[in-house]
Amino acid sequence: MTTIRVLVIAIIVTIIAVALLPLAVLLDLAGGGDGFGLCTGGISECRTSYFDGPELLGVLGLVLLLLLMALRAALHVRTLAEARRDDEALDESSGDRLGRL
Questions:
Q1: 4-8, 62-66, 70-74, 96-100: range with lowest mean pLDDT
Q2: 1 DSSP 8-state letter
Q3: Residue 30 belongs to what H/E stretch?
Q4: Cβ proximity of 38 and 25 under 8 Å
């Protein structure tokens, strides 16, 4: 159970980091940086094509989609594990009442 919880937390933290990545790049550019390597000479010498923005949006969207699918799968596995644990506990308690254990 603990492993699944750690995995869920790690996926959520990764989703937040990926979602905040464009903001971090813009803040770096606004502060005079190179935007984490996006514009090597700074914002004044930055030359990009028209497709760089949509391409970045598509890649980040795909990564977020895959992370959301992984989160959904991890939550589903957690639900199945909890249901199996509850069923085992119920079987043990009913066995005590029937005198089988």
A1: 96-100
A2: -
A3: helix 2-30
A4: yes
